[in-house]
UniProtKB/TrEMBL annotation:
GO biological process: methylation
UniProt cross-references to Gene3D superfamilies, sorted A to Z: 1.10.287.1890, Vaccinia Virus protein VP39
PANTHER family linked: TRNA (ADENINE(22)-N(1))-METHYLTRANSFERASE
Alphabetic keyword roster: Methyltransferase, Transferase
Recorded GO MF terms: tRNA (adenine(22)-N1)-methyltransferase activity
Protein name: tRNA (Adenine-N(1))-methyltransferase
Length: 257
């Protein structure tokens, strides 16, 4: 596999239809969010892409319009977005190069597709983990995974480690008052991450970007507030839960020190 692509920026889809950016622009296959623009930066040039949970099919259509990928599969489990993706592909005259399939998760991928990159964006990390785990039979181990979880990054990183995927790149950006992480991974043999690395992101911990530190400062305040509320609560809070939150608060405090 190639190294992480940093220069093949291409427009990509929003996670919901008719999303509007901070400047009021409608987001579609022509004008798309900064977050998913960064996802596209990690799709290798000339890839055969499977976009799972493709919604309106904006990601593969936009990448194909730019000549950034060779072929694509847009997988969608729900009928309404499936038809929307079909319409986007048809309106851009890309029926011969993008296949839209109604399927659950990685079942959208068929052996003859020759997929080299898989994108799964805009879902909870645990949902992405479950899609990968239940669809293992559809992975050949050579694909690059480009994942954009909405929270739940820790269990997703745990799955990647347990299945011999090394994290090649991590990005964190803040858009519309939300923090979004992008995790790029490829199977590379056994890899070990510490509990703290699974929690924060091994490469995020090293880079310590301003947006990363600001995110964890916000989360630390939330943890401290939760612990304070627990201390005042009349009903008993499970000791295990208290200890877990206290441990996370301690990790964050050490990280920020």
């Amino acid at each position: 596999m190639h190294g992480v692509a940093r220069h093949s920026l291409a427009p990509i889809r929003p996670t919901v239809p008719d999303v509007r950016g901070e400047k009021g622009l409608q987001l579609n296959e022509h004008t798309l969010s900064m977050r998913l623009e960064r996802v596209a930066a990690h799709v290798p040039a000339g890839a055969r892409l499977a976009d799972i949970g493709s919604d309106h099919g904006y990601l593969p259509v936009a990448l194909m319009r730019r000549g950034a990928i060779a072929a694509a599969v847009a997988g969608e489990v729900a009928m309404t977005p499936f038809h929307a993706a079909e319409r986007t592909v048809r309106e851009n005259d890309l029926d011969q190069r993008i296949t839209v399939r109604l399927a659950n998760g990685l079942a959208a991928i068929e052996p003859g597709d020759g997929i080299t990159a898989i994108s799964i964006c805009g879902m909870g990390g645990e949902t992405i983990r479950d899609i990968l785990d239940s669809g293992k039979a559809h992975l050949n181990g050579q694909e690059r995974l480009i994942l954009q979880p909405n929270g739940g990054e820790q269990p997703l990183r745990q799955w990647l480690m347990e299945n011999d995927y090394r994290i090649l790149c991590e990005e964190l950006l803040r858009e519309n008052r939300f923090d979004y992480e992008i995790i790029v991974a490829e199977r590379a043999g056994p890899v070990e991450y510490t509990a703290e690395e699974l929690y924060f992101g091994p490469l995020q911990m090293q880079a310590r970007s301003a947006v990363f530190l600001a995110k964890w400062q916000r989360i630390l305040r939330e943890k401290q507030k939760t612990l304070s509320n627990f201390a005042r609560a009349r009903q008993a809070v499970p000791e295990e839960k208290m200890q877990e939150i206290a441990r996370q608060a301690r990790w964050i405090t050490e990280l920020l020190a």
